[in-house]
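Dear colleagues,

I hope this message finds you well. In preparation for our joint manuscript, I am sending the 60S acidic ribosomal protein P0 (Solanum pennellii) sequence together with its predicted structure, so that both groups work from identical material. I would be grateful if you could confirm receipt.
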Amino acid sequence: MAIKPTKSEKKVMYDQKLCKYLDSYNQILIVNADNVGSSQMQGIRKGLRGDSVVLMGKNTMMKRSVRIHAGNTGNDAFLNLIPLLVGNVGLIFTKGDLKEIKEEVAKYKVGAPARVGLIAPVDVIVPPGNTGLDPSQTSFFQVLNIATKINKGTVEIITPVELIKKGDKVGSSEAALLSKLGIRPFSYGLVVISVYDNGSVFSPQVLDLTDEDLVEKFAAGVTMITTLSLAISYPTLAAAPHMIVNGYKNVLGVAVVTEYTYPQAQQVKEYLKDPSKFAVAIAVVAESATTSQGIVETEDKKEEEAESEEDDAMFGLFDD
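The corresponding structure tokens are as follows:
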């Protein structure tokens, strides 16, 4: 018969395992494990088997092991984990893609009934329609001020009802009604609350960013830098083109209202003196564009006709 390890021996084994994972993995997902059952956890471990391992434990024990290991290795980056170890949390050590691991974990959520005293994680809305309950059950609906009617010998809810709001405690009447209706409004699973990557800690929402999101944020940053640079007249790579254009506009403005001139300004002055020249220039450009388009269309038509003649000739070779 195998001898079971003592409590102190279990602590030593746990400490060794945690330190081993800290040295072997550079990426860690900190997950909340509220209302996650043992069978559900077993399925998650099985689904992540390969590049990832799940480690649960008491926060005080994890904090102590992390603090001591950071001191022994001189790697103070491990200390960034300590403020994250609050509440019912666990650690997923991984070498895989963080976004894929997060999505894999989300697959293992299971539906759960609304038990009395639970804090509702989402709004619970009872849809209208036939409940299948007999008229003797109307007392549940009356207590909760739910409008009903009797239809074909069963209770029917007339309008949608917001039974429980997110953050409220589930009462006994609400729990009983949802149980009778067969509604399991909540779902629970491991929820990623923070990400640790090579010493850096960030929100899991970062993992959902796409390339388009990054480009959009980069463009917004460039716009802010450009605006600030223009406001304080400080040249930057982003603002330089605008500064040159604005400077040219100032020079052109001075030339227009004075006798000073240069070729580009002279053309603008002529347009201001005789606006009809500007209209003629636009008409010439439009006509040129139309002519170019007509030439292209003609050439395309000729190519199509040539291809059609070639096809006819090829088919003719095989005619009886």
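For the figure legend, we might mention the following. Residues 313-320 have pLDDT under 50 and may be disordered. The longest helix spans residues 275-317.

With kind regards,
E.M.
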